[in-house]
Fold:
Amino acid sequence: MPDGSLLQLEEVSRIYGDEVKVHALDRVSMTIEAGEFVSIVGPSGSGKSTMLGLLGLLDLPTLGTMWVTGSSVRDLSDFERSRLRGDVVGFIFQQFHLIPHLDARRNVETALLYRNLSPTERRRRAMEALDIVGLAPRSDHRPVQLSGGEQQRVAIARAIVTEPKLLLADEPTGALDSTNAANVMQIFQELHSPLRAIAIVTHDPAVAATAQRRISMRDGRIVADEMLRSDGQPASYGGTMGDDGRGTLTAPEVEG
Amino acid sequence: MRSVLDLVGVAMSGLTSRFSRTLLIMLGPIIGVSAIVAAVGLTESAKGDLQADLAELGTNLITADAAGSFGAQNPTFPEDVIERVEALGGVQSVTGTLAVEGVITAPYDAAATYYTAFPTPVLTADANFLDVMQIELLSGRWLNARDYAVGARVAVIGIDIANEFNYRAGENRTLLLSGLEYGIIGVYDNVRLADSFNTSVLIPPLTADNDFDAGLETNTLYVRADPDRVVEVEDNLPVAINLGGSEEVNTSIPSDALEASAKADSTLQVIVASMGILALVVGGVGIANVMSISVIQRSAEIGIRRALGHGRGLIAWQFLLEAVAVGFFGGLAGVGVGVFIVVFASRIFDWTHVLDPILVIGSTEFPSHTMGLPTVYLLGMGAALITSIIAGLYPSVKAARLEPLETLRLG
Structure:
C-alpha cells in the first residue's frame, strides 16, 4: 500500500521478451522520499537503466506495484501518466537531448507547453530557470552554438522549470569533461532542497558520492542501499540485500 | 484553447526549421491544386468570351426558313406572315428578309467579273432588323420610311463587305448591283448569331422588287421569343406561318451551336482536373513518405517531448498538424499559382480571364459559371487538406507509437 512516499516500488519486476524471459528487474522494493538525494549505481546490465525508465514513468512494471505520489502507475491512462510525468519528474540525460532546431529558451519552454500558460508567462519562467543555471544571457543560442556543459545546463533548466518533485538524471556528467562535470554536480547540490528530490543514475563513484544515499544494483536486484556521509563513505554498515530481498549485514560494495 | 495554440506553434516550428524539405513536400499540393484551378479557370476563360457573347446576344432568337413544298424553287412565306407571327404568344419581335437571287454585287464596274465568281448575297430587310438582331450601326443610318416607301436605291452593308470594299465611315459612295448604282448609307456591326449577314448587302424590299423582280414576300424570319417560351414558340412557328398549309418551315435556334461549342471542352476540364487530383494523390504519398522518414529522424525529439510529459495524443496531433499545414499552405499557394496561370494565359491568348468559376462538371445548366462563390478554390483547398490529413495519419500514428525508452538511449 502507498505510504506517502514520493516513489514507492513494491516487489517490482520488469521482464523483457516472450519466449526467453529476461528479468531486467527482479522483485525490487524500495522507496524514495521527498527531498532525498539518491544515486543509483551498478555495472552495465545491472538494471539501473530499467529502473530509470520506471522511476521516470516512461515504462511500466511487468509485475509488482509502483506508486508515484500515491497513485499506482498501472491504473493510469497514457494521458494521465504523461501528465504525472510532466508534473512530478524532470529529466536530465547523458546526451543532453535538447531539440536541435529550438534555441535555449524555447527548449526550456517545451516543458511548459500544453499547461495553459500564456506565451509571456512561459517565457518568463523559462528565463528564470535559465538564470538559475547561469545561462540567461545565452537564451537565444541554439544547441549547436553551446558547449556540452552549457547544453547540459540548459537541459537542467528545462528539467526544473516545471518545479518537479524529482529530478531524474541519467549519467548527467557522462559526456562532459571534468571541469564541466564538477560544475554540473555543483548545480545539483544547489538545486537539492526538501521539496526537490534528486535521483542520479551513474556508474561514476565520484558522482555517486555526492548523494546522501546510494542504491547499488546488480543483476536486476538492489544489493546495497546505504546512507553516505558528506565525504561519500557509508555512514554505517548498510544492509546488502540477500536473495529474499531482506537485508543481511555484510560489508558494502563499492562500484567502480 | 491555449493548448491548441501551443500545438500549432510546435507544428509550425517543426515545419519552418526544415524549410526546404517543407517546400519540397508542399510541391505536391501546389501542383495539384494549381492544376485544378488552372484547368477550370483556363477552360472557363477560353470560352468565357463566347459565354459573354451569348449572355449578350441572348439564346432566344429563332430562325425560320421557307422550305416550300416539294420541288418548289425559291420558296417564300405568305405576305402577311410577319403580322401573324407577331400575334403568336411568346413572340417579342420579328423581322423578315428575302434573299434576292441572281444579283451581282461589285464595288465598281471593272470588278464585276471577279464578283460574279464570288457573289455577295443581297437581301431585303425591314425596319425591325437591327432591333431583332440586337446589333448597332457602325456608321451612317438605317433604311428609313422614305426608302421603304419609294423603293430608293440605297444599301446598308455588313462589316466584312465594308472592309472588302474599303468603305470608310461617312464616305459618299455607291456600289453596283447588277450594274445599277446603289448609295451606301450605313454599315452594321458584326451579326454573331447569323454571321452570313457580315458579307451581305441589305436593301429595301420595294427596291428589290422594282429592280430585280424579287416580289415583296420574305423567305427567312428571325423571331425574338420570351426567353422562357423559346421552345414553345419554335414549335408553334410553322403553324402560325402556314396556317396548316403544306409548305415546309425549317426552324432553328442559332445560339444552340454557340452554346454547344461553349460547352464542348468540359471533357477537357474533367481530364485536366483529374490530372490535378492525381498530382494531389501522388503529392499525398510524398508527404506520407517524407514525414515517415522525418518521424524516424526526429525520434529523439519525440522521446524528449514524451519525457517532458506530452502524451501520445499530443505527439500524434503535432505530426498530423504538420501534414495539414503542408496541405493548407500548399493548397493556398496552389490557388495562387493557378490564378496566376489563368491570368497569364488569358493575357497571352487575349481572353477575358474568368477567376470565379463555379465548377459544374457535366452540368447541362448554362452558363456553367456565374458570379459568386469561387467553388473551385474551395474544392482545390478541400482536396489538398483531405489528402494531407490522410497522408499525415500514418506518420503521426507511427510517431505516437514510438517508445521514448527506445529513442532516448538511456543508461
Remarks:
- Chain B has two domains: 2-54+262-408, 60-255.
- The radius of gyration of chain B is 34 Å.
- The first strand of chain B starts at residue 61 and ends at 68.
- Confidence is low (pLDDT under 50) at residues 360-372 of chain B.
